[in-house]
Specification:
Elements (H helix, E strand, L loop, with lengths): L1 H9 L6 H8 L4 H18 L2 E11 L30 H13 L4 E6 L6 H13 L3 E5 L6 H10 L3 E3 L7 H7 L5 H13 L3 E3 L2 E3 L5 H10 L6 E8 L16 H14 L4 E5 H4 L4 H6 L4 E3 L16 H4 L1 H10 L3 E2 L3
Parallel strand pairs: 1-2, 1-9, 1-10, 2-3, 3-4, 4-5, 5-7, 6-7, 7-8, 8-9
Length: about 325
Amino acid sequence: MIEKILNKAKQGKKLSNEEFLELLEIDNDEDLEKLFKVACEIRDKQSKVIKLTSTVHITNKCQIQPRCTYCGFAEETSSKGYYNAFYKTNEEILVAVKSIQEAHIPRVSCSGGYGYNGKQAVNACKIIKENSDLEILVNVGGDLTEKSINDLAKLGADTVCCNLETINEDIFYQRKPGDSLDQRILTCQRVSDAGIGLSSGLLLGLGESKEDRIKHLRYLSNFKTLEEIPIMGFNPYEDTPMSEYPPFPLKEQLKMVAIIRIMYPEIRITMPTPTVGPENVEFSLKAGANNLATVIADNYPHEVKGVGAPEYGNYSEVVTVIENLGLIPQTI
């Protein structure tokens, strides 16, 4: 049966939800390898170029209260994360941007905490546009007004990320009691209406079902400028309410990557380099991913914590892995 489904996928035929669920249920290595091989063939038919995305963390001051139960990024959430509050100055943003450009990484993600109506994102975008040729991804969650989204469009932001995490409302509000799923959906719609490329991903392992994941992927097709789907597996942070919750298995993350590649052949699929670990970047690419995020320039000037550190996602190691697989790292 698996063989039949994969042959159908190779021919570019649409799969049903039931067929995708069967692929998610694969539990033997032989069938898993077949799934990944089909996903890579579909990706490589489009392009063998792998995008690299670095990051500038603008601020960890987040005004969502109560906090998301898994968050280790916001101030005072985890001793292993960005515990001390910060808000990067314009000069600090500029220095980071210059190091990314000098490393020939083509794209930068501007990420930050919630509570600024997008002003911090617009400011960072302006600095980057005036001082570099980098592609710009803005990632501040649902914290964007219609005005700030239009400002980003005028500045030429390439992509705006607003992760829904899960569209299972019960799970969403259990894990994110201070956030709003409706607001995040509205932000995705506004980004799409403004003609900006939309990135919207899944955080796997919050308690959602496999059916929820397929439903979520289907739901994303409602946004006409959808161009990128990040896949993140839950990892516990010390001191958070979910610190004892089990991490989401890498193998299950990789299955989702392959399934997205089959469902959306041309989409950019993002895996965060540090959270999967340096030894697993290879597997992300072998499952059909084509964007590695949080790639840190060797000369990056700021400390990177929480979602990764330079020793886990540094540029030279990532490029070596890509080239060893016969793929092409995108550089500038």
